Amino acid sequence: MGFYASKVKMSYEFSKAIPTDNAKYLEYVSFKQKFGDDGNMLVTGIQTDSLFTLKYFNAYKELQQQLKKIKHVEDIVSIPSAIKLATDTATGKLAAQKIFPDLIQTQQELDSVSAQFFNLPFYKQRLYNPESNAYLMGVRINKDVLNSKGRTQVINDVINTVKKFEEKTGLEVHLSGLPLIRTVVADRIQNEMKYFLFGSLLLSTIILALFFRSFSTTLLSLLVVILGVVWSVGVLYLCGYQVTLLTALIPCLVVVIGIPNCIYFINKYHTSYIQSGDKEKSLVDMVSKMGVVTLFCNLTAAIGFAVFALTRSAILREFGVVAGISIMIIFVVSFILLPAALSYLPAPKPSQTKYLNNRWITHFLLQTEKWVFHHKKIVYGVTTIVLIFAVLGIFKLKSVSYIVDDLPKTDKVYTDIKFFEKHFGGVMPLEIVIDTKKPKGIISPKVDVHTIAFFQDSFLVNQENVSKPLSVIDGIKFFYQAASEGTGDSSFTLPAFGNPLYDLHKQLLQLNARRKNNEMTASDSATSKLMGSFVDSSEQYLRISMSMADIGTQKLPPLLDTIQKKANEIFDTATYKVQLTGTSITFLEGSRFIVNGLKDSIFWAFLLIALCMLYLFKSARILLCSLIPNLIPLVITAGIMGWAGVPLKPSTVLVFSVALGIAVDITIRFLVNYKQELPAYNYKVPETVSATIKNTGLSIVYTALVLIAGFIIFCASGFGGTKALGWLTSATLLIATLTNLVLLPVLLLLFAPKKTVIKKG
Q: How many angstroms separate the Cα of 623 from the Cα of each of 419, 615, 656?
């Protein structure tokens, strides 16, 4: 398994959160087939009123040139490379010309060409914001390298090139776009997971060493967990999966599941040895008493995660399969390795079992017993009050996620995306595809270009949180403005009559002929890019491209509904079909799918765990007693999230699955011990409950401390989701420990048969 674990690879492809047969996903795939990828544009932005001074402009131009030299950078869209259309004196036709010459030596020359640039409305609000003196440069990166490990190098090269520009000019450069956001965030999380895994192991080791006061016992427990981690990574490879942001959590889960196994096994071994003084008998007692208990504990935890495999989301399915198998493997490893290794080690010394008489924990358990037997009404009252408080918090709970919401508000990635939202409308791709329902449809006389222009320039441009739209309509305006030799906004219009798309179609035919004869010019290349980017090869589909702010999954649906309804009003549905797609929409659909999938999985996990517990205890009364202490912590956690303003999103919904799997573990261990102790106390419930609190309470408290320590380390994360996973899971485990040590015994006493059953002979 170590060999297989060494062969596992990182996934650099952004995993599909939605099924491949989902309608939104299919629309997005269809869009990419027609127009290419929409998520490979990185943008740089600066804000200054000195850009068009000779010093700064030449430095900005040099920045563009240096970025263009970076491997896998395909194109740069910027002010220094902006073009205009002018009449070629040799041919008499319009030809593309660079506005800014390669060499600008005087400020007067720069002022002259800058005036030409500012007279072209095509670039306004796209490459510059005249109101705030903000300027944008687009860097298109090869989409294949963005799905490989080479993406980190490309992004780092861009960042380093930008830093040199900052040092040279003293200007702050803002960087954003999906390539940067995805790469930086993914790399940070992957690095954090490595640190947290080692940190969790280290912290667990320290706590185990303090408890057991034995180097060999601590090392043995650590060995069990490390083997479990190695096997889990090996299973990942054998299943044909790669390490994603979700499957990277599995080794940490194996640690927090494996450590309790070790604590309960060794605790039982030490307890039995103190009673009998016989090592072999104590080992047999450990295996016979704790084997089935641990099996069902790990089985319920595995079910809690394995139910994700039933979803249609690839990323959840992979996580569910590997997590479920890995948890059962850690049971096998601990069940076989621990007794075998302990049989070779010397019998435990008094110093190694001293923790069984820990003064603080013993006092806590005695107080717990006092509350259980003498303050039942207070326990009910406090539970009821806390539940009411939690339910009120649940009403405040919101389900919303953002692409960068896990980042601190002071993080540069976050502040940079806000810069582009403020000055250019955002960087998240949003695409509108207008389908004319037949090939060559866009050159049909039935297609009203002015209607498309009205939709784009009178409606879309006025929507909040959306950038200025761009389509072939703008190209036509650009073309006709040059043909009429006009300047400024007044001449940047469509011709009054006809279908100018037909003129572009004729140019495309001429381009194809010149391409075959290798006679393409710079002007031909510009026209070809315009047509290829916004009109598909069949000339049936027309694309309107925009960027939008990261407004989150709550505000995005109303915005999309508004655009779709307006499109259906403006366009004749008999002639046109308008679809909204792009990365922003697939992100929304993916977040919805993951959150709903996790919610459904928690329901099924709870049901399957209940069936397992019913089979284990064969008592509806005990089943009811067991479910309540596990349901309450989840309700309280949801309430805490509501009051604390933590929304439901993929990274926080996972808390409930993790907490449920571990909390049930505590319940099963308590109830199995209770069931095993019943015969020894002649089936007298009060005496058995008292003994169970004392015997099992110690292991439960130790386990809770180790688990909370293992999860609390995630609070050091720089990501909100990981941080929430840490403190919310720790809080849930703390509540689950209290409900299982206090409320569960109270419920057992409440539902106990009125007459004591005495087992006869």
A: 55, 9, 20
